[in-house]
Design goal:
Blueprint (H helix, E strand, L loop, with lengths): L10 E2 L5 E2 L10 H7 L12 H16 L2 E2 L10 E7 L2 H4 L4 H17 L4 E5 L12 H19 L5 H4 L25 E2 L2 E6 L8 E4 L6 E3 L8 E5 L11 E5 L3 H6 L6 E5 L2 H6 L9 E11 L10 E5 L5 H8 L8 H4 L2 E4 L11 H22 L1
Parallel strand pairs: 3-6, 4-5, 4-14, 5-12, 9-11, 13-14, 13-15
Antiparallel strand pairs: 1-2, 7-8, 7-10, 8-9, 10-11
Helix pairs in contact: 4-5, 4-11
Length: 374
């Protein structure tokens, strides 16, 4: 006689022991992951000798599957810098997540148009009543500097160079730069960014350059230092890659790679202009404003180091007036060119992060053309 109960199926383990139907079975999916062929999908089980052998095999397969990053072969000696006031984080943004996103948009624009340096400066135009002390102003300047440096840094180096900081709590809203020096583990480029590891000794150093194995450098270097490494072609074939430390400008000057930007802080507009990291300073100064001349009428001459300065909500006129160290009374007296890069604008104002993108787009052809004409 049946009472309507279903017959319960019994489950047995490989050893013949009966197990509960609710108890899950432990399976090893590592073999499946290895067959996927994706280097990023593989993880070696900890404390497993089998895993160590498989990891070596995976590294050998990876070396054979490197994607070569082609050199642009267009050496570039000139540089382009932009200067942006930190006051926009208060005057145009109401919370930290929006401030983080705005800084990210500036970094994206700089990356798209090959900007080599971003200067974060204090334009002395903090009008909001909730920013009253120098400590608060310094904190916003530090926030913009830290976010710009964080986004420029290759992802595999951030764990070495950045600790937890409250200014980085919203970095999830940042869009990836995908710069040429933000290389993946399966990409082979003659240059790579790295950080010197603690296991270096008095005669040599080891550098993490994001290849899954440390690179040998035949010179002592300070641990924790970020460096640019040049890899010879034969380093691709050996088990222990080796290279030499070079200037971070070499990828741009010798091969034409865009190699990210540096960040500098200036306490005033005068310091932006006078505090250049280049020995001879900037030889081309461009100011931007809706009161400037139409950018279409401007013809640039050949230059080595150009600087494009953007104003905040109050404009460059207010920043100039607030700087007692400047003798110039009008922006036209300070800059070689004072231009309006959006003469047909229909909005009352253009946000600074929008102005950066518009201006770089308008000036790119003129900046490149100035090098080719002369």
């Amino acid at each position: 006689m049946s009472f309507g109960f279903k017959k319960q199926r019994r489950h047995y383990s490989d050893e013949g022991e009966e197990v509960s139907p609710q108890q899950g079975f432990t399976r090893n999916y590592h073999g499946d992951r290895a067959e996927r062929g994706s280097p990023g999908a593989w993880k070696v089980p900890r404390g497993d000798t089998y895993g160590k052998k498989t990891k070596r095999k995976w590294q050998e397969e990876l070396s054979a599957e490197f994607v070569t990053v082609k050199s642009p072969n267009k050496p570039r000696s000139y540089t382009v810098s932009i200067a942006v006031p930190a006051s926009i984080l208060v005057e145009t943004c109401i919370k930290d997540s929006l401030r983080t996103y705005v800084v990210g948009q500036i970094a994206r624009a700089a990356n798209i148009y090959s900007v080599d340096e971003i200067v974060v400066f204090d334009d002395k135009c903090w009008k909001k009543s909730d920013v009253t002390t120098q400590a608060e102003i310094k904190d916003f300047i530090e926030m913009m500097q830290l976010l710009l440096e964080y986004q420029e840094c290759p992802q595999y180096l951030r764990k070495h160079l950045f600790q937890f900081h409250h200014h980085l709590k919203n970095v999830g809203v940042l869009n990836a730069l995908n710069s040429p020096h933000h290389l993946r583990v399966n990409q082979w480029c003659e240059y790579r960014e790295g950080v010197v590891l603690d296991k270096s000794n008095k005669s040599a150093s080891y550098v993490d350059i994001g290849l899954g194995t440390d690179v040998f450098i035949n010179q002592p270097l300070q641990s924790g230092l970020r460096v640019t490494v040049h890899l010879p072609p034969e380093a691709r074939e050996v088990k222990r890659p080796y290279g030499t430390v070079v200037s971070p400008d070499e990828p741009r000057e010798k091969a034409g790679y865009y190699w990210g930007y540096t960040v500098r802080v200036a306490n005033s507009l005068s310091e932006v202009v006078a505090g250049s990291r280049f020995p001879d300073g900037y030889d081309l100064l461009i100011g931007t404003s809706d009161k400037g001349e139409d950018v279409a009428t401007v013809d640039l001459s050949k230059f080595e180091h150009a600087l494009i300065v953007f104003g905040g909500v109050e404009g460059l006129e207010s920043a100039l007036e607030a700087d007692s160290d400047l003798e110039a009374t009008e922006p036209q007296h300070l800059f070689d060119f004072y231009v309006n890069t959006c003469p047909m604008q229909q909005t009352r104002t253009v946000r600074t992060e929008e102005a950066v993108l518009i201006t770089l787009c308008q000036l790119q052809g003129k900046l490149v053309g100035a090098q080719q004409i002369y």
